[in-house]
């Protein structure tokens, strides 16, 4: 984001669900570092957003993946009054982008993820799996756009978003968007918002689990698996611990 | 009826058929057998006019008409039916709707009156019964949610309704259990064994030939027919394997 | 024959001149409002319609507000600037007196509807299709309603079926109560414009407990040149009432663009149900993108009562540009909203269409099924909003959005917004994008269908879930229309 840029407004699609008061406190944000994955190479990125309750964290990640390159991202966003992560990814021929993300918010947090994945050339693939949990007065939002350029044939792009609301005062927003200009492509997205499975809760209660324990178990199951394929064991442990602590804090 | 002369064809610029010649007369049933990659399906698709299967030399005529010059639907109207190894799913379009449009489109091309809805349903019911297929299945979308066996059975119902002069059946026996094989075999005999019709069976195995007795058996290898004979050739293949028989 | 080439053949087959067979012009003596848009225009229209002063005041208020507004620019549409002064806002066939009966209808108009196949003569309807479901028709020709049929029979059932101009004069209290309740005057640029200059349209009131004895329909025809059509439709289904309403539209083939900015408001009270079906076939412009209707329409339903239900079904094949989001505000407990849509764009057409389902009531449910088909150099966008308010306990939504691309010069886009504030609400959204596979095309052709029929059949299969929702006779028309609209497109 350029420093010269004006403060975003609700009219800016990418900011329509944001906490603009919080944004104003830190605006303008620093110029982001562009990540370039060279052709044929493989990179991983792990991002744990775990700032303090008052903090405003806005992370912007422009990414270019060269032909045949791969980027695999794991993201856990649980901190800050506003925690916002943006990925703007452009894929060259045969490149692959994979994102697994969990957004968890409580109190008055706004946790949001904005992704734009552009398949600029043929044969690229992308997978995005995002899980969101909102409790208290929190808002979790996922704005995920997949763009397929003209002639980017044989694109294979999939996106899955699932959100869970734990309180009547919480909000979940989603905008899973497709913009497609090539015909020989496989593009699909699915988005669901719902609550914890009541039948499962009852089943667990009948086996003797207390409601809080049952709920915690189901919530862990909800984001379980997202971080299983992290290659760095230390990072993996750090993510698991942070996620668990956050879920327990939801109470 | 079908005359194939020195046919050459390529798939993705790769030569697959390399001078195949074959004549099938009315009233005859021929079987083509051969190892994987010999060009069996390519032969079926080239004759059917499938995009990507490019004839590069020689010719093929059906009842004197130049097959290779025609669009796929014109070949169908001329009397050619292709039984697919992998029948294609068409969501939202029922078999009944599909076949009625296809049949009437063929009839119009031949200058015949289209069938009314009632006439068509009578015909469909008759053929479904012949192939042991529930009419309800025909009301479902084309091949959607059908098992492998059901798809092949549906292909035979298509054949029964469209009533072709020449049927080329590409591995119609694959994916069938014994009962289904019997029904399908019986169906081929009932529909196609007639003095003015002919069949080209493409198969890997002898077992379908137990139910549909071929008059001639050909072995296809490397894009050419390398041996021809009677039903005994299929039995020899089953016993000795392709390598042996081709070498012989 | 190589694979891509084959597909191109099919494309070419469908590309052959797209004939818009409704593109003729009727030669009718008409009177126009002075060209351009001003308070004078608004007063002229109101005076022409002998409106009460409250109506004129309402229009003027809207006009003054419209002057302060800006045209929306958020849709995925490339809308050329519109010169609102370079158009007529009112055109009506000259008539001698008040129409005593349908027999007094200008024969040329009568011929126009005959050519369009619209039954505006009851006798004929009765004679021709004995036993077939009868349809009452309100025929709107440019800015005025020229005929409504079966009035007497409907009145016996207590159903009011009138042009909105007549209703304003005859049932002012009913109109006043609901007009602008669902789509407020300041709602959006085009709706506000409509409030100021709306010309004619249909008013339906189905009283408590009445099941409307026949399908009601309005047939909109733009005939005059350089003339905008601004129809206004208001349908109120009182408690326990049921009505099925059909809307069709065509326009002559012209090189310049014409504006159509309609507002449709539906109100369903307790246990009431409204089924609203549209086959939109405005002139789409020619194969080079010249001419065609700008279709900027605001359609909204208020499911106010408990167990109320509104179902929108639309088949959109026409118009150069479509901007349209038939929506449901689900206030009632257990209320139900449905949106079934097929939108076809070909050549240079642009469509940005979808729905909004606003869930406020407990146990409210909504279903969205959208099938977009893009061909030629066109762009089709599904844009939808599903909002679950904090008090929408146990509300449910299911959305299925599928796009089919025919050829690689078109675009298909999906822009859903999901906003959930109630933890017991469940929203499910799925979207896919596909093309007609070469396998499907070859399979259908091997069975005897030519490329065009094969494409049409496969497209109809793709859209089946939606077409099924249409009343029988409309469904047949819609199926044919899908085939015709894609002439000049793909495989």
* CATH level-four homologous superfamily name of chain B: P-loop containing nucleotide triphosphate hydrolases
Instruction: Determine the oligomeric state from the structure.
Output: heterotrimer
> Strand order, biggest sheet of chain A?
1-3-5-7-9-11
Number of helical elements of chain B: 9
Low-confidence stretches of chain A: none
* Helicity of chain B, as a percent range: 25-40%
Show unreliable segments of chain B: none
SS-based class of chain A: alpha/beta
- Under CATH, the topology of chain B can be stated as Rossmann fold
* Sheet with most strands: strand arrangement of chain B: 6-9-10-3-11-12
Report the strand count of chain A: 12
Note the gap between the termini of chain B: 30 Å
Task: Itemize the secondary structure elements and their pairings.
The complex is a heterotrimer of chains A (251), B (248) and C (491).
Chain A (H helix, E strand, L loop, with lengths): L19 H7 L8 E3 L4 E8 L6 E10 L4 E8 L4 E10 L4 E10 L4 E10 L5 E10 L4 E10 L7 E10 L5 E10 L5 E9 L3 H9 L4 H13 L9 H17 L2
Parallel strand pairs in A: 1-3, 2-4, 3-5, 4-6, 5-7, 6-8, 7-9, 8-10, 9-11, 10-12
Chain B lengths: L1 E10 L2 E11 L4 E5 L6 H9 L4 E10 L2 E2 L5 H6 L2 E4 L6 E5 H15 L7 H14 L4 H4 L2 E2 L5 H15 L3 E5 L7 H15 L5 E6 L12 E6 L2 E6 L1 H10 L1 H6 L1
Helix pairs in contact in B: 4-6, 6-7
Chain C lengths: L2 H13 L14 E3 L6 H10 L4 H14 L24 E3 L13 H10 L5 H7 L6 E7 L2 E5 L2 H6 L3 E4 H7 L1 H7 L10 H9 L4 E5 L8 E7 L10 E6 L4 E9 L6 E4 L2 E6 L4 E8 L11 E12 L5 E8 L4 E4 L2 E4 L5 E10 L4 E10 L5 E11 L3 E10 L7 E11 L4 E10 L5 E10 L2 H9 L4 H12 L1 H4 L4 H14 L6
Parallel strand pairs in C: 3-7, 6-8, 7-9, 8-11, 9-12, 10-13, 11-13, 12-14, 13-15, 13-16, 14-17, 15-18, 16-18, 17-19, 18-20, 19-21, 20-22, 21-23
Antiparallel strand pairs in C: 1-2, 3-4, 5-6
Describe the structure.
The complex is a heterotrimer of chains A (251), B (248) and C (491). Chain A is built from four helices and twelve strands. Chain A has 251 residues and is α/β, with parallel strands linked by helices. Chain A has one domain (13-196). Chain A is globular. Chain B has a single domain (2-247), classed as P-loop containing nucleotide triphosphate hydrolases (Rossmann fold, 3-Layer(aba) Sandwich), CATH 3.40.50. Chain B has nine helices and twelve strands. Chain B has helices spanning 40-48, 72-77, 95-109, 117-130, 135-138, 148-162, 178-192, 231-240, 242-247, and strands at residues 2-11, 14-24, 29-33, 53-62, 65-66, 80-83, 90-94, 141-142, 166-170, 198-203, 216-221, 224-229. The longest helix of chain B has 15 residues, at 95-109. The radius of gyration of chain B is 18 Å and the shape is globular. The two termini of chain B are 30 Å apart. Chain C has 491 residues and is α/β, with parallel strands linked by helices. In chain C, helix 2 (39-48) packs antiparallel against helix 3 (53-66), helix 7 packs across helix 8 and helix 10 (438-446) crosses helix 11 (451-462). The longest helix of chain C is centred in the first third of the chain and has 14 residues, at 53-66. Chain C is globular and about 65 Å long. The model of chain C is unreliable at 1-18, 96-100 and 123-133 (pLDDT under 50). The chains are: A alpha/beta (251), B alpha/beta (248), C alpha/beta (491). Chains in contact: A-C, B-C. The interface between B and C is medium-sized, with 35 and 31 residues.
